[in-house]
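Researcher: Quick test of sequence recovery. Tokens follow.
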């Protein structure tokens, strides 16, 4: 009989996001699971990996990304996207349903899961559509999608603007204990490619006001309070929305929220270059909004950090700013940007930061709680927080290369990790 596979990660600093602490421990992995955690473990015959000077954390969970398959495989596939996710330390990802066709049925949820299993990279937990074809009219197959493996529903990319339909979605999902993820963008305003303000006026860009987001969030928060259902606000970008979520939580509304690295890293000043890779939806806001998002993360108003990884082909992005699609790839730079902007800036401790990318999304989506305890799956990442590195195109695993961060020096990086029996290394510990 073949001996069980054993790996000893020796001398690393183990990040425990659940208990908000970091300890110097060894981690013994056997048969794809964590066998022991403690000081100076002995493991005769095990592969030994020296992790001194490195940090070991649970694998990250991205609760909001776009893998483009089916329908837009020229920009990304489930295989290329989940490989890029691993490079960023994300061992679990939740693709949004705005594919072609949209993920609005049991069959399409099963399709995503099958493609992810074939790829063998990050695990996929699909998010289904709220409504059929994401048209905002008729409820999708919510019950059967959950049975197939969907962990939430959303019409991401579109707001469910009919309040009666949204009420029905919330009430129906309450019966299945599913969170409803809302892309808050009030209809009726002209579509803006930039935040309405001084920058958009000076650059002559079509602008949309931040109240488009906050007013939509207010309606959905009140509907969630009325229905006693679970609401999650996606990609929070402005100060008013942060205040509304804080108010709602104080009232006991079952509301959670996420933001993305670009909303606490960039402002609309980045649009001065007219680089379409800075075009996102919702658009980059002012520095006041950026600071409010950071404050929301610091005090727990904003629960989680997601990437909103949005690959687009080179030809799609190399057009006029007004007609270019919104979004950019985000898996491979997310951890470093957050470490720099939140941890090094002393807004969050390392353990708190990791919790925003592990235990918080797991709690919201009902996934197993990430931890590095005996008996848990060996689902972990190894981090080099001393690393200083520059993001370049030749480091990209995504099929697309639409990032505004090429050439930027970043602090801290994911060098590898484990996904059950599988080891993945992008930079092996010295």
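Model:
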């Amino acid at each position: 009989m073949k001996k069980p596979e054993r790996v000893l990660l020796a001398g690393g600093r183990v990040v425990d996001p659940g208990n908000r602490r970091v300890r110097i421990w060894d981690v013994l992995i056997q048969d794809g699971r964590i066998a022991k955690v403690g000081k100076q473990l002995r493991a005769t015959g095990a592969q030994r990996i020296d992790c001194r000077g490195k940090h070991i954390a649970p694998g990250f969970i991205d609760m909001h990304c776009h893998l483009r398959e089916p329908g837009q495989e020229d920009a990304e596939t489930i295989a290329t996207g989940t490989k890029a996710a691993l490079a960023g330390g994300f061992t679990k990802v939740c693709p949004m349903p705005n594919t072609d066709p949209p993920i609005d049925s049991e069959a399409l949820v099963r399709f995503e899961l099958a493609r992810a299993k074939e790829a063998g990279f990050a695990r996929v937990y699909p998010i289904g559509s709220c409504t059929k074809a994401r048209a905002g009219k008729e409820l999708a197959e919510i019950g059967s999608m959950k049975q197939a493996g969907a962990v939430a529903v959303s019409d991401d990319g579109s707001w469910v603007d009919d309040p009666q339909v949204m009420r029905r979605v919330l009430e129906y999902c309450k019966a299945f204990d599913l969170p409803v993820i809302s892309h808050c963008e009030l209809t009726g305003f002209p579509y803006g490619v930039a935040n309405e303000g001084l920058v958009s006026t000076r650059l002559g860009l079509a602008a949309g006001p931040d109240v488009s987001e906050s007013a939509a969030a207010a309606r959905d928060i009140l509907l969630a309070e009325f229905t006693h259902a679970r609401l999650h606000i996606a990609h929070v970008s402005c100060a008013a929305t942060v205040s509304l979520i804080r108010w709602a939580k104080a009232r006991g509304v079952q509301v959670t929220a996420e933001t993305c690295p670009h909303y606490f890293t960039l402002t609309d000043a980045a649009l001065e270059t007219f680089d379409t890779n800075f075009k996102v939806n919702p658009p980059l806001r002012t520095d006041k909004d950026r600071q409010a998002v950071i404050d929301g993360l610091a005090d727990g108003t904003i629960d989680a950090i997601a990437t909103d990884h949005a690959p687009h082909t080179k030809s799609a992005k190399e057009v006029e700013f007004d007609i270019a699609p919104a979004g950019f790839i985000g898996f491979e730079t997310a951890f470093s940007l957050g470490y720099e902007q939140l941890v090094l800036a002393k807004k969050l401790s390392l353990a708190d930061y990791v919790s925003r990318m592990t235990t918080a999304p797991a709690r919201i989506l009902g996934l197993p709680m990430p931890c590095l305890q005996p008996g848990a799956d060996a689902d972990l990442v190894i981090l080099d927080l001393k690393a200083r590195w520059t993001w370049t195109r030749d480091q990209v695993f995504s099929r697309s290369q639409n990032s505004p961060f090429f050439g930027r020096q970043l602090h801290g990086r994911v060098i590898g990790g484990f996904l059950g029996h599988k080891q993945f290394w992008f930079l092996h510990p010295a």
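The chain has a mean pLDDT of 96.
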